[in-house]
C-alpha cells in the first residue's frame, strides 16, 4: 500500500487535472491564502487491514487538494469523519490536516480519481486513467467485507470494477441485475462483500436536507453491523 500511494502522488497521467490542481494551489482563495497547498494527487487513507472501504468521487479543490488528505479540509469531510467516529471507525470526529492525529480503525478511504477536477466533474478518460489504482487497492484489502459508495459515480465505478454476484434462476445462472442507485440500497459484490450506496455528503445534499446526519449514520451503522457479524 505504501508503494501504491507513492505512485498515486507521483502520477501525472491527466494533463487537464495536473493543470487545474496546480492552478488552484497557486492562486488559492482568500480564506486559505496563507496555507501551503498540497497541489498533487491525494493519496488514499486508512487501515490497510480494513474490512470497510469508503469510495468517494475526487478530492475537493480547496479540501484534499489543499490539505493532502482525502476528505479533509471541507464540509463533506466534516460530515464523513463525524459519522465514521460515531460508528467506531475513526478515533476522532475531525480531520483538519495530515498531522492532526486522526486514525481510521478497520476503515480505508479512497476515491474514483485522486486529483481535484474542474467543477468536480472528471472526464471518462480521467476516470479510466485512475482505475488501475483503485483496482490494486481493492485487491490489496484482503479482509474487505463492505464497500460504502458515496454518490452515484462511485457506486457505478465500484460495480464496474468488482462486479456483482450472479443471481441463481432455476437450473441456470442469471446475470446479476444492476441495482438502481438509492440511498441505503445494497448489493452483493463478486467475492462476497456488500456494497452500500449513500448520497454524497456534499453541500448540495447536506444544505438541502437531501442527506441528514441520521441518514449517514444509518449507512455506517449498517456497515458496522455487517463487518461485526
Describe the protein in words.
By secondary structure, the protein is of the alpha/beta class. The protein has one domain: Uracil-DNA glycosylase-like domain (Uracil-DNA Glycosylase, subunit E, 3-Layer(aba) Sandwich). It is 37% helix and 14% strand. The chain is built from 8 helices and 8 strands, in the order ααββααβαβαββββαα. The protein has helices spanning 2-9, 15-27, 64-67, 75-86, 124-140, 152-162, 203-206, 213-228; strands at residues 45-46, 52-56, 107-111, 146-150, 167-169, 172-174, 186-188, 194-198. α4 crosses α8. The longest helix has 17 residues, at 124-140. The two termini are 27 Å apart.
State mean pLDDT (0 to 100 scale).
94
* Total count of strands: 8
> Helix fraction?
25-40%
Q: How many DSSP H or I helices?
A: 8
CATH superfamily: Uracil-DNA glycosylase-like domain
Going by CATH, the architecture would be: 3-Layer(aba) Sandwich
CATH topology: Uracil-DNA Glycosylase, subunit E
Class by SSE composition: alpha/beta
Largest sheet, strands/sense/barrel:
6 strands, mixed
Low-confidence stretches: 167-174
Helix and strand arrangement:
Elements: H1 2-9, H2 15-27, E1 45-46, E2 52-56, H3 64-67, H4 75-86, E3 107-111, H5 124-140, E4 146-150, H6 152-162, E5 167-169, E6 172-174, E7 186-188, E8 194-198, H7 203-206, H8 213-228
Parallel strand pairs: 2-3, 2-4, 4-8
Antiparallel strand pairs: 1-3, 5-6, 7-8
Helix pairs in contact: 4-8
Amino acid at each position: 500500500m505504501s508503494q501504491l500511494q507513492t505512485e498515486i502522488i507521483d502520477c501525472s497521467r491527466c494533463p487537464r487535472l495536473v493543470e487545474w490542481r496546480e492552478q488552484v494551489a497557486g492562486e488559492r482563495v482568500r480564506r486559505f491564502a496563507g496555507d501551503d497547498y498540497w497541489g498533487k494527487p491525494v493519496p488514499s487513507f486508512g487501515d490497510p487491514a480494513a474490512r470497510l472501504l469508503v469510495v468517494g468521487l475526487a478530492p475537493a479543490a480547496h479540501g484534499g487538494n489543499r490539505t493532502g488528505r482525502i476528505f479533509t479540509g471541507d464540509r463533506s469531510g466534516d460530515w464523513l469523519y463525524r459519522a465514521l467516529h460515531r460508528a467506531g471507525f475513526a478515533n476522532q470526529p475531525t480531520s483538519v490536516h495530515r498531522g492532526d492525529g486522526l486514525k481510521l480503525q478497520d476503515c480505508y478511504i479512497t476515491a474514483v480519481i485522486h486529483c481535484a477536477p474542474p467543477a468536480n466533474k472528471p472526464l471518462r478518460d480521467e476516470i479510466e486513467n485512475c482505475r488501475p489504482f483503485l483496482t490494486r487497492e481493492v485487491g490489496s484489502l484482503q479482509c474487505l467485507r463492505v464497500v460504502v459508495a458515496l454518490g452515484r459515480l462511485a457506486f457505478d465505478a465500484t460495480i464496474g470494477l468488482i462486479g456483482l454476484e450472479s443471481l441463481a434462476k432455476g437450473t441456470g445462472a442469471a446475470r446479476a441485475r444492476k441495482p438502481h442507485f438509492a440511498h441505503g440500497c445494497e448489493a452483493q459484490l463478486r467475492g462476497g462483500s456488500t456494497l452500500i450506496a449513500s448520497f454524497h455528503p456534499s453541500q448540495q445534499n447536506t444544505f438541502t436536507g437531501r442527506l441528514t446526519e441520521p441518514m449517514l449514520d444509518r449507512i455506517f451503522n449498517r456497515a458496522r453491523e455487517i463487518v461485526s457479524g
